[in-house]
Amino acid sequence: MKKPKSKDPLIFLVFFVVVFFYWYLVSMGEEHETKFTFDIVLKHLPSDVIVTEVPSEKLTLVVRDKGEKILGYRTRRTFRQLMVDCRDYKPVNGRVVIAGASLEELLGGMLSSSAHIQSVSPDTIQYYLAPSVGRRLPVRLTGSITSDASHVIGSQSLTPDSITVHAPRNVLDTMKCVYTEPVAFDNLSDSVSAEVALVLPQRGVLFEPESARLSVQVTPYVEKSFELPVEGWLMPRDAVVKTFPSKATVTFQVSLEQFHAITPEQFKLAVSYTELNADDGGKAHLQLIQKPDDIRSISISPAEVDYVIEINETP
Questions:
Q1: Which of 77, 237, 241, 285: CA 20 to 30 A from 303?
Q2: DSSP secondary structure string, 78-95?
């Protein structure tokens, strides 16, 4: 610093600081255009309502103001949230809309008197309210569930089977149940468990919870058989039919889940009097006139039997 040339950098630095400070003062007095992004926060919500749908987007504001004001906005920590006082806006069928002059007035309360709003995006804020006391409604499954050829659909359930629905009264009064999004589980060979979404009938409806778990039990078919006596069916009061053999074997497929629930008492094997014909060579075709609903692939062995008809003569 004692050398004459060593003072040049210091002099330059002093002048640079002075010029920069002067430029800063001039800049602060000029207008600038700047973009700000806000989170939308709802406050002073009445205790007897809940928000069923909040504003989905952040709000972007382009404002023109003096540099010193812009700097103040940037350094103000609260200038990151747009506070919406719910007491100032009355919902219509549960919907609150703030747009146009109302939205600019709301933003203007955060700006200085010298500010000029250039643009606001989105140009509308909307949210939905509903009574805090909801209604419990059943959940109904929609779609298709099928198994492959060697399996059967057993039990299927939704958990929970009912949910709480919050919606404006005019909407809630028309709802009888809540439907799931359509599901498609085809040709199943194993049990499945999946989360399924619920269908909102319109905006402003809130489900608690917002989905349900579908459980489908799939079981394989197994073979089972019974030896059953052959009876006469639609016989005259004075006639009795005797078959040879007197019993036949009924074989069928049933789900593993129902295997032990199927009993011989659920079946009735018979020959029908109306189908007996003297020209058939004394052969009768066996019919299963009673059976459970949950069986398939039924076969009877033998399929035909010999028979005789005995007439009881009354004195």
A1: 237
A2: TTTEEEEEGGG---BTTE
pLDDT tens figures, 46-86: 999 999 999 878 899 998 888 777 877 888 878 889 999 99
Q: Which 8-state DSSP code applies to residue 100?
A: T
Q: What CATH number does the domain containing 266 carry?
A: 2.170.120.30
Domain that holds residue 96: 25-131
The count of residues in the chain is: 315
3-class state of residue 113 by DSSP: coil
For 16, residues 6+ apart whose C-beta sits below 8 A from its C-beta are: none
| Amino acid (one-letter) located at 276 | L
Q: What CA dihedral angle connects 271, 276, 279 and 281, to 10 degrees?
A: 20
**140 and 231 housed in the same domain:** no
Residue 182 DSSP one-character state? P
Helix (H, G, I), strand (E, B) or coil at 110: coil
> What's the structural domain count of the chain?
3
Q: Are residues 114 and 52 in the same domain?
A: yes
Please tell me what DSSP assigns to residue 66. Answer: E
The answer on 225 and 215 residing in a single domain is no
Q: CA neighbours within 13 Å on the CB side: how many for 106?
A: 25
Q: At CA 129, angle to CA 85 and CA 211, rounded to 5?
A: 130
Amino acid making up residue 170: N
The structure's pTM equals 0.69
Judge whether 191 and 152 are in contact, CB under 8 Å: no
- φ/ψ of 176, rounded to 5, equals -105, -25
- Give dist(CA 285, CA 296) in Å, integer: 20
Q: pLDDT tens digits for 123-150?
A: 999 999 999 999 999 999 999 999 998 9
Q: Both 195 and 140 in a single domain?
A: yes
d(CA 278, CA 296): 33
The reply to whether 213 and 234 lie within a common domain is no
CB 40 within 8 A of CB 55: yes
Distance of alpha carbon 66 from alpha carbon 16, whole angstroms: 24
